[in-house]
Amino acid sequence: xxxxxxxxxxxxxxxxxxxxxxxxxxxxxxxxxxxxxxxxxxxxxxxxxxxxxxxxxxxxxxxxxxxxxxxxxxxxxxxxxxxxxxxxxxxxxxxxxxxxxxxxxxxxxxxxxxxxxxxxxxxxxxxxxxxxxxxxxxxxxxxxxxxxxxxxxxxxxxxxxxxxxxxxxxxxxxxxxxxxxxxxxxxxxxxxxxxxxxxxxxxxxxxxxxxxxxxxxx
Length: 218
What we know:
Layout: H1 2-35, E1 45-51, H2 54-62, E2 67-75, H3 84-88, E3 95-102, H4 109-118, E4 127-128, E5 131-132, E6 138-142, H5 145-162, E7 169-172, E8 176-178, H6 186-189, H7 194-210
Parallel strand pairs: 6-7
Antiparallel strand pairs: 1-3, 1-6, 2-3, 2-8, 4-5
Helix pairs in contact: 2-7, 4-5
């Protein structure tokens, strides 16, 4: 009888040990996956924007001091886990978008909004440069009331200055889907790509001339 009790407690302790180890490993995996591409500190904040081809937008925001990583993806639509071909069809209502990890002690959300509006044309509906379609529309996603207020004030300022209607959608953030791996860091990995040379690079350089004070030191 005593041997059975000892055996019972042994297995109880063994299974408890296995359970605790599995929980620990799972937690570590979640932490590493959420920061695997970023390698950032606990003070990071996240912002979301869409303003045309994400190859261009990713490169622009990655040039900004305080931005730690930018992920290309899809947002603003109705289809779960969309593919590039689905979004390109214009039937998913998603736009090519970027997820921006930034350090608010270095760059403010307000500055990111300035970068957003100074790096694309907010007056063209469903178009950015040579790219045409709803997937290239201008969207500023907000996570809270303060972000909404900042974006709204900037849109009002632009309208009063330019006397033209801003087509940028002001939308509460819901979900972001990362694009396929080959889209990530596209400009950096493919500097000789014809689209990069003809569109992405000129757009990046135009932005740098407008806001040289926010750029990373190269």
